[in-house]
Amino acid sequence: MSCRSIPIGVVWALSSLFLQHNTLNAQSTNVKPVIDPATQQTSAKTRLVSLKLVDISVESALIRIAETAKMELSWDRSRVPVNAGNISATFENKPVEEAVKQVLKGTQATTRISKDGKTIWIVPQEKDSVKRDSAAAKVGRITGVIIDASNKQPVFGAMVSIMGLGYSIVTDVDGRFIFGNVPVGTRTVVVKILGYAGVSRTVEVVESEAKEVSIALNYVPERLREVVTTGAGERKRVEVGTSVTRIEADSLMKTMPIISVEDLIKSRAPGTQVLISGGTVGTGSRIRIRGVSGLLTNSDPIVIVDGVRIDATYSAVAGAPPREGIGGGMSRNQASGNASATSRINDIDPETIESIEILKGPSASSLFGSDAANGVIVIRTKRGKAGPARWSLGLEGGLSRMHAKFPETYFAWGNGPEWPTSQNCRLDMVSAGTCDQDSITSYNPLNVKESSPFGTGRNSSFNTQVSGGTNQMKYFLGFTTKNEVGLLKMPDTEKERILEIRQGVPLPSWAERPNVNRTNNVSANISTEVASRLNVDVDIRVMSGYHRDAEQGAVSFIRNAMLGPGYRDSIGKGWGENGPALGFLRRISDAVRRGSGGTNARLRASERIFLNGTGGVDFSTRRDENLLRTEDLLESTDHNSSLARYSGEIVTVTSNLSGVFEMPFANGMTSRTTTGMQFIGTRNSSLYVRVIDLAPGRDVIDAGTIDVAPSETRYESATQGWFFDQNFMLRPNLFVTAALRGDVGSSFGSESKPMLYPKFNSSWIISDESFFNANTVITSLRLRAAFGQAGIQPGPAARFRSYTSNYLWVDGSQQPTYILSSIGNTNVVPERSMEFEGGFEAGILNDRIVLDVTGYYKRVKNALISRSLPTSFGLSARQENLGNVKNTGREISLAVRAVDRDMLSWNISMGYSSSNDKLIKLGAHTERLGRLGERYVEGYPLTGLWARPLVSYGDKNNDGIISADEILMGDSAVFLGSQTPNAELSLFNNMRFMNGRILFSSGFNYTHDMTQTNTVMSNQCTSNRCAIAVVPGTSLAQQAVFQSLLTTTDAVRNAFATYEKASWLRWGSVSLTLSATPEFAKRLKSNSLSLSLMGRNLAVWSNYRGPDPEVNSSTNGNGTVDMGIVPQTRDWTIRINMGF
Amino acid sequence: MQNLKITVALILTAVSLACSWDVNSVDNPHDIVDPGSVETPAGISAIYRTTISLFSSSFAGGSGGLSNSFVYASALAGDELISNADYATSLRMLGIGGEASSFSIDENPWSNIHLVRIHLDQAIAGAIRFRNELPDYYLVHMYAMRGYLSLFIGELYCSGVAFNRAVPGADIEFSEGLSTQQVFRKAIADFDSALAISTDSLRFLNLAKMGKARSLLNLDSYDSAASMVQSIPTLFSFQIRYGSTFNNFSNGHPGFTLADRLGGNGLDYLSAGSYLDRNNDGIDESDPRVRSIYSMTTFSNVPAKYTTTSDPVNLADGLEARLIEAEALLRNNDISGWANILNQLRRSGWSAPLDTLTSDSTVSASDTLRVNVMFRERAFWLYTTGRRFGDLRRKVRQYRRPFETVFPIGLHPTLTSVQRVFSRNANLAPPATEVESNPKYAGCFDRNA
To answer: Do A872 and B62 touch (CB under 8 A)?
Structure first.
């Protein structure tokens, strides 16, 4: 019987019956029943209760008493056996405390009444072991109180142990504890509780005497108490068996130079790479979590904001016509006039983010189902807090400059018998006697002030937020406006040249500063307690943005600077084919409008059943423009006026529904069952059209001749999943979870079977075990392990042989046609990833040092790949499954409180990650599957670059010059390196002086061994413009590499010189924050005031020959290509934060 | 017990909801044509129109640019044109000497030709299925186009080319390499299929005849070729037409300069077409078949054969039919008959008669010179129509001329780049993607002509 045939109505009816029955005696759970104000003055000892209980659990009985007496009862289910069995009892005007005691009879729990008499605490009785020892001779007592050092308040629930005796007890509501029969002698009392540094104290126990011990605990921000997100809902970190990185965005934003969500993530989550695609403002990046484990072009993680899936696409702006004639052999895509790519994750205003959690692999992301194999980024926005309206203001302004150095462009002048004056007299030509060098000139307009297109960028932002409300309704409202002007500017020399051509007609103003990025964000949410058991949150975020950039990439001004004549010539002014004017006068922009939001409802249906529902939508429109008008340029007939427009709309709908059922057992064990379902639907539609020969002064489509007929794309995809998650708290310090997710996706058709993704994990705070000797260097230790599976769906049309309909020129007129757009693959199935993860978190030296170590082993089966088809199919690729991929890595984070004084505190945090991916099995494929130079070879990394190696070289004729016949290249391509770094290291250093009034922080990151494709440099060398081609005295090794580049028909050989293994150390950030004293702040009628000076990207040390080893023009896949991309800038920012 | 019931109820509810909610019923992508609607007479007609459009692009240029076309590749790989584009373009075209090239310039003609072929495979199968509902000439035309595609591949590429298959409803099939001879025979099979269909469209039948004759010529079957074109009138031409925004070899296009004695062995197109007044009588005696225009954009002579971007380019014409007949006569040593045809064309093939060939270059000439004249006449009459590169290869393969006396050799005249030396190979190699992505493909197995 197909599961689809289960009559849903019957099931609903059945479940309704069950639920209805249980709600009759299902009451509020353990902490806060409703208190009647009239009883507020009555003590638990005097308040009377009348009640009849029939065969209900102890916990239910307690709840009934609390409700009837309208008193507050409180207990910790993990420590008190309130589910030890069912009872029956009748109370007639009985004091509440006595009634509670009667219910607790036989449960080894007793009561304590708070000092004000309003609350009854239910706590465990002393351990039997303690009582047993009371019979022994020569015993004494240890009594004491545990308090919080910061506020001197008692600490309830702390575990107090006596080392070596196995005695342990939990402190009561007054923080007190008593060990009644302790053998005399020197004893060590150990106190532990989550969130405080563990403490031990030596006590001399004297016979028949009581030793009073008072211990103050220091609060430490205990990560294990944090609530983190899992696919089954929110959980305490302590019970989660996977490594979840949490970034506290709120505090970082105020003191660190952060301009985007990607900035927040970069270097702060070990194992998460942010691949920079350029240094112009508005440029996005790609995010890769735990390296590359799949081969599909889209290895992006999914992004969830407040429970709602959002679009985080990384893509280039729509292309313009190619430069036929000038671009020559370039294909349409290569020379399409693109600017840098943008990333939609940056539409989220970082000012409104409270925290970001990164779930790194299938072991953590299983329950997010299909598409989650590349990890999940969970973003929580700020919430309102009860109280009067609290306002905050943030004002920011900054400057950016270019600090990268660009290699000079050389020209070697020479003469010879048949030597044209335009020829560049290369070293090996000198060696061959073809020419004699007269002189060498060098010039790169990027390095000369008057011709440099790099000016001073500026940015400003204003942010205001307000939050407040009551316990029943809290609100938050935030607004941010940001205006960035990139450092690109039309160079003075170029301006003069163009003005001359334009006969004095001024340039369009936008062309003088071609790179801008402007955004406005509004974010609001309301959290309400609709009823006593129902909470509803409503979120909404609205964003508008405009981004414009100069042309970059294959035809950019950077590439042209590298290919210049090697001197400042009169026509081109030292540039190659084109100066920056052409790229700057191409108006390439994208405008985004976006709205997203959702509603989350949480219902406590009964004492043990919680229901959670989230519905949300993310809607974004994007309008790209790529405009070049010849009247703006007036210098060349090689370029048609052209206008390309792209309008896109993406709608993503999220619907989650889950139920949690908690069931306590005897001996403190608790079961929590979570089940739920999820629906993710996406509709993507776009329209693209391109015209040429625009009428002068016009920038609308109907003012030109259609070059590419309008093409409309619209597709939908949907994934429906359900999950079942079973968690057991076996002991307060031991948790195990087993879960299963099933998915059905639209990609596979209606007949497909659900994909099932299992998950297991466990967490054990071993340091809470009595056998653990806490009196050592390691004061706390948690072990964790996890296993999980996740998947990736093929594309929405991967199965189909598909066609697009277009109007094409047919015999001189345009007619409707069908063009094959995809060959399709009916055999394609989802990719499946499985991952083992294990690790530990250790608190060392009273948690002054916290070490978190994780290792993982991931294996991908049926890895999806966009397989390069031989072009004799006419089409270039299709999605296929191939063999298995292995991915291993280590992640280490270390937090050190080096100094912790009022006048000075110094915290250091370090993150290290290494990642190694390897293709284990290629299946039936033996041919090249990726782009040029990228090969998928069993036993080697997925993103490996291959080329024929330079085997040896030698200066046979001893002329100091290496010629083509003096190098030996290997016969076949060998592995040269991976495009993902082997290891990354980050270091953040925070120093607080004078009670935190002064904060100094700085950040460094180091990347080791990433193979970059240095296309600009190789182009410079192949045109004889680089130093190693022409400058005498260049090392023989460099000359040999250069010679390997010269056989241009053999791309595999050529690539050897193009690929560079790069490592770099970047001083990424520095900031100094001064906080005003409260008195000074009040003078400005504010509650808080701080001023920050922040620097970003201050220096880089690298063996890379190009200007920036990190930039990457590859907009798809996992490759790295440096092709004429603006390097990252150095920024300085001042920020003022005020709170009211 | 109650707890268990609650748990069971929750699980059953969730599972049943999950199972009953059929999200798979999302619409197909809207820009994608429902594959079912393609397999109808109207759908096959649409693909037929697609093949015409794509064929025009793959032949002499189109919306994808010149670099995608067979004529472009033939002209640059031979001796007709020099590219004015950046050094790399010319360099890459000279890269025919290498092994599999990885550059798009070499890849584009290859992939475009095959893209049309894949469409034609499907359209021909569909047209056969709906034969009663579609005009007869559809099949004739499509068979002829597919034959020409094989012809293009045979004339451009080495021995060892793949013809992969992607039949609807079946998985893709990789192909082993075919020899040049096999490719021409494959072309002939398609032309025969076209000619076997009864249709009243003489235009398409003549197109197929010309294609078959050209294939036969490549297979050394001169008499059969001549016999095939006997019925084709000299004024016949089958033109590939272009839209206004298409790029063919239009007047003033900045991408090309007429070559002049390229690499020593190339013909004197530029000189022959330039102003010439031997008698100082003020009358231009230059050859109008290879005229050029001096471009103030590129400061070089660009072809004047096509004056606008939408000018048609001849795929087949009666002029070539006569040239094929002439070549057959030359092979049969009927010198006067051969010379007569050439001179007849000179008298009637152009709007203004051209000078007839002298006896020094015909009847009194050596065998070697006669062959040279034959090929020169073909080169000038058929300038930039995609015949020349195949002819150069034929000259080596069928007339046993040494490579060094036929193809451009030595240093390129204008390039300043690192690689200036002309290739020593007489054909293009399929692009790297074929070599590296087709598991059955072993690369070129014969780089001889």
So the answer is: no
Q: How many helices (H) and strands (E) does chain A have?
A: 18, 56
Nearest residue on chain A to B50, alpha-carbon basis: A817
**Residue A113 burial (C-beta neighbours within 10 Å; 0-12, 13-18, 19+):** middle
What are the residues whose beta carbons fall under 8 Å from the beta carbon of A252, sequence distance 6 or more? A258, A264
| Cβ-contact A1059, A943 below 8 angstroms | no
CA separation for the pair A1016, A278 (Å, rounded) = 14
Q: Which residue of B has its CA nearest to A16?
A: B9
Residue recorded with tokens 């023989």: A1036
Least confident of A482-491, A615-624, B21-30: B21-30
The residue type at A2: S
Q: Which residue has the higher pLDDT, B140 or A1019?
A: B140
pTM for the model stands at: 0.73
Cα pseudo-dihedral B315, B393, A1049, B256, rounded to 10: -40
**To probe the interface with A, which of B245, B412, B438 has the most A CB atoms within 10 Å?**
B245
Distance of CA B231 to the CA centre of its chain: 24
Q: Select from B266, B250, B242 the least CA-distant residue to B404.
A: B266
Q: How far is CA B104 from CA A102, A900, B68, B107, in A?
A: 87, 63, 9, 5
As a whole number, mean pLDDT of residues B67-75 equals 81
By C-alpha distance, the chain A residue nearest B428 is A1049
Model pLDDT for residues A430-454, shown as the tens digit of each residue: 888 888 888 999 999 999 988 899 9
Instruction: Determine the Cα–Cα distance for residues A884 and A887; give it in Å rounded to an integer.
Output: 10
Cα angle at A535 between A530 and A536, to 5 degrees? Answer: 85
Burial class of residue A608 in the structure, from the number of CB atoms within 10 Å of its CB (0-12 exposed, 13-18 middle, 19+ buried): buried
Dig out the tokens for A895 from the structure.
């937090």
Sign of CA dihedral A255, A260, A262, A263: negative
Residues within 8 A of B (CB atoms), A 393-422 only:
420, 422
Average pLDDT of chain A is 81
- The values of phi and psi at residue A541, to 5°, are -135, 130
Q: What pLDDT does residue A25 have?
A: 30
For residue A224, give the DSSP letter.
G
What gap in Å lies between CA A1048 and CA B106, rounded to an integer?
A: 13
Write down the pLDDT at residue B163. Answer: 92
Stretch B415-439: mean pLDDT: 73
Which of B 276-335 lie inside 8 A of A, CB atoms? 297, 310, 312
Handedness of CA A664, A665, A668, A671 (dihedral sign): negative
Out of A22, A810, A1049, the one facing B52 most closely (by C-beta) is A810
CB B301 within 8 A of CB B268: no
At A742 the three-state DSSP class reads strand
- B35/A718 touch (CB, cutoff 8 Å), yes or no: no
Rg of chain A (C-alpha set): 34
Q: Are A439 and A479 in contact (CB under 8 A)?
A: no
User: What number of residues does chain B have?
Assistant: 449
For residue A1112, the Cα-to-chain-centroid distance in whole angstroms is: 19
Q: What are phi and psi of A539, to 5 degrees?
A: -120, 145
Please state, for a pLDDT cut of 90, what percent of chain A lies above it: 26
**One-character DSSP codes across B76-129:** HHTTSEEE-S-HHHHHHHHGGGSSS--SHHHHHHHHHHHHHHHHHHHHHHHHHH
User: Between residues A999 and A420, which one has the greater pLDDT?
Assistant: A999
Report yes or no: A299 and A370 within 8 Å, Cβ to Cβ: no
Distance CA A316, CA A148 (A): 55
A814 CB burial (10 A radius; 0-12, 13-18, 19+): middle
Query: Which residues of chain B make contact with A742, given a CB cutoff of 8 A?
Result: 18
